[in-house]
Amino acid sequence: METIVKVDNLKCGGCAATIKKNLLLIKGVESLEVIPENEEVKINHNDALSLKLAKDELDRLGYPEQGTTEGLEKLSKNVKSYLSCAIGKLTKPEDDKDQ
């Protein structure tokens, strides 16, 4: 199954690298595509459980599904996403760094 998840705080290739690295570790997530310019994550998954685990991981990383957070919680997720983004930029392969 393919599900498109619109997320907050998705801005660049560093964010995408962090999301890919972490979500592909989830059992049942077969593949994914991260599209920063649309703030979308396309997740190919086996079942509802793997989708829930992927959404939970997105939230933990600071990329919650749009419309699910507000106020201080939203600010906290924003800060987490900046940290995740920076880590992603540092760990991306050399040929991806300019994206």
Using brief descriptors, characterize the structure shown.
single chain, 99 residues, alpha+beta, Alpha-Beta Plaits, 3-stranded antiparallel β-sheet, 46% helix, 18% strand, disordered C terminus
How widely separated are the two ends?
28 Å
- CA radius of gyration is 13 Å
The portion of residues forming beta strands comes to: 15-25%
Total DSSP helices: 3
- CATH topology tier name: Alpha-Beta Plaits
Q: Assign a percent range to the helix content.
A: 40-55%
> Helix- and strand-based class?
alpha+beta
CATH class: Alpha Beta
Mean pLDDT: 86
Question: What is the total tally of β strands?
Answer: 3
Contiguous uncertain segments of 5+ residues? 95-99
**Largest sheet at a glance?**
3 strands, antiparallel
Total individual domains: 1
Please tell me the CATH architecture by its name. 2-Layer Sandwich
| Global morphology | globular
Strand order of the largest sheet: 1-3-2
SSE topology string: EHEEHH
Topology:
Elements: E1 2-6, H1 13-23, E2 29-35, E3 40-45, H2 48-61, H3 71-91
Antiparallel strand pairs: 1-3, 2-3
Please sum up the structure shown:
With 99 residues, the chain is an alpha+beta fold. Helices cover 46% and strands 18% of the residues. It is built from three helices and three strands, in the order βαββαα.
Walk me through what this model shows.
Helices cover 46% and strands 18% of the residues. The protein has 99 residues and is α+β, with helices and mostly antiparallel strands. It has one domain (2-96): Alpha-Beta Plaits (2-Layer Sandwich), CATH 3.30.70. It has a 3-stranded antiparallel β-sheet with strand order 1-3-2. 28% of the residues are buried.
